[in-house]
Design goal:
The complex is a heterodimer of chains A (149) and B (719). With 149 residues, chain A is of the alpha+beta class. Chain A is built from 5 helices and 5 strands, in the order ββαβββαααα. Chain A has 2 domains: 74 residues, Beta-grasp domain (Ubiquitin-like (UB roll)); 65 residues, DNA polymerase, domain 1. Chain A is 34% helix and 14% strand. A 5-stranded mixed β-sheet of chain A has the order 2-1-5-3-4, with helices on both faces. In chain A, a hairpin with a 2-residue loop joins β3 and β4. Chain A is globular and about 45 Å long. In chain B, α9 runs parallel beside α10. In chain B, a hairpin with a 5-residue loop joins β21 and β22. Chain B is globular and about 80 Å long. Classes of the chains: A alpha+beta (149), B alpha+beta (719). The structure holds FE2/S2 (inorganic) cluster (2 copies).
Chain lengths: 149, 719
């Protein structure tokens, strides 16, 4: 039985220690906001924050999460209030199908925390998530809008 | 306009399923209408006492915005307050029970709005008339003196009632036989750049996709089908993995796939990866990619071919022409790469089979479930979730069949079957592969007097819908080359024209891939147009304009004007152009590209014009157009599926790359609606992405790229 700190709460998960955090979140803890897209660190759909750093949870075994602070898409809004990125996403009507957007929002939130006023080049470097609907233009606009907000 | 209404009488049936009992996070049918005070006015419109309006949408939402667009059309006629609108999907089996009152569920071919706009608007208008009639009866005044607006009916005397107050009385009235639809120029909700209705849960992780379904006692299945399409299962050794953590059952389905069912996906997948399996692939296991190429090449010169479009005598005109131009192009297999891998959840008992999944065709999914379950359709139900993209792939119900076949072997237990990305990549229905030889004849003044377009390659209909072939011919192969029609007609007037198809069908399953055959046909025609223009010594735009029919010319002009075509560009930047008609819409694109001295391509900007007839939501069209370039350019840059020993070689994003944000050009959308028709917007623009860029590359480098993807092409000058 492993103990995880997810979205500020301590939760117990019984799973093989080699199980990727992605599947612990989805199947063991029932937190399905974090998505599966590739399982090999390529697409970013599974992005969460581990101690504030945007991390692809399909690559992190349960055993490596001990003592770390995990934030998922479900934990971004505080007291029902969307964070800056989520609010900009809403205002800019960013998602199409939405499947990639949990990962996008987690990556953009980490980017803004590290660089409150990111350039286009910063966005290109940090936002390597795949969006097959092709929302990239709206993602870029919304990050700039969030930086100004 | 006054039209006959075609909607059936309401006949609300309370749901007998447990769908509403699970917390699925997405509005499921009947959940909203189960309370007695909630009133169904007709199939499309449900009104709550608090004025909340539930609009039923039969088409599937997969990112393209059809849910919002269709709701706008209903709300426009209903004259309701947009802030009170929510939506729900009626189940396909409810459609069967109600004599297909919601008509077609199939969501493909950019048909969502263009094919159903009439009857959904009628649905809204009928409900509005019923609410007015209820108010008029209550107030004992003529209905003509009452007006509906903002979810209220008012009378000239000052009387007023909300839709919520009137709904119960309105629901008891007969449906009017005739309603008048609004003139689009009077639209207040439709035609406006409204925000989507389904955004918030996508920002907080609350949206439930098929892959997120949870229910008590549910198990998860991981599947591996024979890597060679058409191959069979020979044997597998369940005992080797049965004792692994979480494993509940190891089984086979359809004699072509093995499945591990476990408590979690990870445990199922771990065991599946260790499961020893032997396949029987026969001769198919010897097929190599170069054989496919040879097969298509042979078709280019074959004497027999299906004729898709013909005018005059192209061969004679070309033979007699002052100048002859010839080129061969090819287009590789493409994978859809849906963001959410295929999945479905099924629960089977001898009395009932239920499926939860994202599907582009709820009725086909229901039929597949019934067939797999060997139960009558009346004992089956499909509950649609939102799709993590569809792109045509989720019109096929193979994954639904698999889920039901697994659940059938574990009666009573809900089983969620998830394809790994690797399974998804290797068991797609691929954008068909074709080659094309184009031969054109120019007279001494540089006019195109004859054109022969020979397509050789794969037919989707032959593989998936053979009943739709016309005397063996696949008419869909000629998308963009058709002789007239409202769908995908050829835009140039060429006095002597022959477009024909030598059908060559490799064993890899083809399928409908967003944009379908317009994609390669636009590459062939629009790149060759540039070759012809050069041979004629003319500018590609001027050369096209001489031959283009008015609507095609207007949209190309709109794009080139906006892009500043012909005006000076930054040093080293070049414009390439392309146009096509697809899915009832006219589209054109201008790509601004540069190629560095060491051959690095950059697409700086795309200017794209669309004439879809009517515009239902300009903001969503802009998003569809921008997204279309991501889809089309991903294919042009990287998209290629190849075969080795009969199996697909690519397995994941590391071997099948797609465009990320750093390569995304700025896309500027020009809407040029000319009215009078309804065209689609989800697909047509994709087709102009590749040819516009390829034509720009030629201007930048002098290299004609006739084979895709671009990642294999050396663009360095002099190389
Ligand atoms: S699922 Fe983790 S990066 Fe794609
Ligand atoms: S919004 Fe659909 S994949 Fe990004």
């Amino acid at each position: 039985m492993a103990v995880l700190n997810v979205n500020g709460k301590s939760v117990q998960a019984s799973a093989d220690p080699r199980t990727p955090l992605l599947w612990v979140l989805r199947d063991t803890l029932g937190m399905t906001g974090t998505k599966y897209g590739c399982g090999i660190a390529q697409c970013g759909a599974c992005t969460v924050h581990i101690d504030g750093v945007a991390t692809r949870s399909c690559q992190v075994p349960l055993s490596a999460t001990n003592g770390k602070k995990i934030t998922t898409i479900e934990g971004l809004a505080q007291d029902g209030k969307l964070n800056k990125i989520q609010a900009a996403w809403l205002a800019n009507d960013v998602p199409q199908c939405g499947y990639c957007q949990s990962g996008m929002i987690m990556a953009a939130t980490a980017l803004l925390a590290a660089k409150p006023n990111p350039t286009d080049a910063d966005i290109d470097a940090a936002m390597t998530n795949v969006c097959r609907c092709g929302t990239y233009q709206q993602v870029r606009e919304a990050i700039h809008a969030a930086a100004k907000a | 306009m006054t039209i006959q209404t075609s909607l059936g009488r309401r006949g609300f049936l309370a749901s007998t399923t447990a769908a509403g009992a699970f917390s699925l996070g997405f509005s499921f049918p009947w959940a909203s209408a189960q309370a007695a005070e909630v009133q169904e006015l007709n199939a499309w419109v449900v009104i709550h006492p608090d004025d909340k309006v539930v609009i039923r949408i039969a088409r599937s939402e997969m990112g393209q915005g059809t849910l919002t667009g269709l709701a706008q059309l209903v709300a426009e006629e209903l004259e309701c307050d947009w802030s009170k609108v929510t939506t729900e999907y009626p189940t396909p089996s409810e459609n069967v029970r109600r004599n297909r009152v919601w008509k077609n569920y199939s969501t493909g071919g950019s048909r969502g709005i263009r094919e159903s706009n009439q009857y959904v608007r009628e649905g809204g208008a009928i409900a509005r008339e019923m609410l007015i009639a209820a108010a008029a009866a209550e107030w004992k005044v003529p209905a003509a003196e009452c007006k509906a607006a903002d979810s209220k009916v008012t009378h000239s005397s000052g009387k007023s009632a909300t839709y919520g107050q009137l709904a119960a009385a309105a629901a008891k009235l007969e449906l009017p036989k005739e309603v008048k639809l609004k003139d689009p120029k009077d639209w207040k909700v439709a035609g406006k750049p409204l925000k989507r209705l389904d955004t918030l849960p996508k920002l907080t992780g609350q949206m439930t996709y098929g892959i997120d379904i949870k229910m008590p006692g549910m198990l998860t299945a991981s599947v591996r089908a024979c890597p060679v399409h058409g191959g069979k299962l020979k044997s597998f050794d369940a005992a080797k993995v049965e004792k692994m953590p979480g494993v509940k059952q190891v089984l086979s389905i359809d004699n072509n796939a093995v499945v591990v069912v476990a408590d979690t996906y990870w445990n199922a997948k771990q065991a599946l990866d260790k499961l020893p399996v032997e396949w029987d692939v026969g001769k198919l296991g010897e097929v190599q990619q170069d054989q496919i190429t040879a097969m298509l090449k042979e078709g280019l010169g074959a004497s027999e071919a299906f004729v898709g479009n013909k005018a005059g005598d192209a061969r004679a005109a070309i033979d007699g022409a002052a100048k002859k131009v010839e080129a061969v192009y090819s287009f590789p297999w493409q994978h859809h790469v849906n963001m959410e891998p295929m999945n479905a959840t099924a629960r089977f008992t001898r009395e009932k089979c239920e499926v939860w999944c994202g599907t582009q065709n709820g009725e086909a999914a229901l039929a597949a479930a019934a067939e797999a379950a060997e139960l009558p359709v009346a004992k089956c139900d499909v509950y649609k979730t939102i799709l993590g993209t569809g792109f045509g792939r989720r019109g096929r119900a193979d994954y639904v069949r698999q889920a039901v076949l697994v659940a059938k072997q574990m009666p009573g237990t809900p089983v969620k079957l998830i394809w790994s990305r690797e399974e998804d990549m290797t068991h797609g229905t691929y954008h068909p592969t074709t080659m094309c030889k184009l031969t054109g004849g120019l007279d001494k003044d540089g006019n195109l007097v004859g054109l022969h377009v020979r397509i050789s390659g794969q037919s989707i209909l032959a593989a998936l819908l053979p009943q739709n072939l016309q005397n063996g011919m696949d008419p869909a192969v000629f998308q963009g080359f058709a002789n007239g029609g409202p769908e995908a007609a050829y835009g140039y007037t060429v006095p002597n024209l022959l477009v024909d198809h030598a059908m060559r069908n490799p064993h890899l399953t083809p399928g409908f891939w967003r944009g379908v055959n317009t994609n390669q046909n636009a590459v062939y025609m629009e790149c060759f147009m540039d070759e012809l223009a050069e041979a004629a010594g003319q500018d590609p735009l001027a050369f096209r304009m001489k031959m283009l029919k008015p609507k095609y010319a207007a949209v190309l002009k709109a794009a080139t004007d906006k892009a500043g075509y012909g005006k000076p560009l930054p040093a080293g930047h070049f414009h390439g152009i392309a146009q096509i008609m697809g899915y009832g819409s006219y589209v054109a694109g201008v790509a601004e590209v540069s190629v560095s001295a060491d051959g690095v391509l950059k697409v700086h900007k795309i200017t794209a014009a669309t004439d879809p007839g009517h515009v239902v939501n300009p903001a969503q069209i802009e998003r569809q157009v921008a997204g279309s370039f991501v889809y089309g350019l991903s294919a042009a840059l990287y998209g290629e599926i190849t075969l080795k020993d009969g199996a697909v070689e690519q397995t994941n994003f590391d071997s099948y790359n797609v465009m990320r944000i750093d390569e995304m050009p700025k896309v500027e959308t020009v809407l040029a609606p000319s009215g009078g028709f309804w065209g689609g917007v989800g697909e047509p623009t994709i087709a102009v992405a590749a040819p516009a860029v390829l034509n720009g590359i030629y201007k930048a480098t002098g290299k004609r790229v006739r084979e895709l993807p671009l990642m294999h092409q050396e663009l360095k000058k002099g190389a």
